[in-house]
What does this fold into?
Amino acid sequence: LGLLVGLQFVGTWLSVRYQWFEHLIKNEPKLLMHDGRVLTNALHRSRVSESELESAIRLQGKRLEEVEMVVLETDGRFSVI
It folds into this structure.
């Protein structure tokens, strides 16, 4: 437990002091679907399957044809637009 707390402290300290380290450990939102077209390369890079994407769309109460964009947020949630 102490090791995990120490690593968290060191990671936070480094990300505050060095911009390159922050970019190394922080994630950016990823566009997974645009204009109703699934971006398969983005799915693979984000390690998201098409079935997970379709499930996220269904959870929003939408059909695939109604969706313009899907964004994978930095906290792991899907934003369906």
Q: What stands out?
A: Residues 2-17 form the longest helix (16 residues).
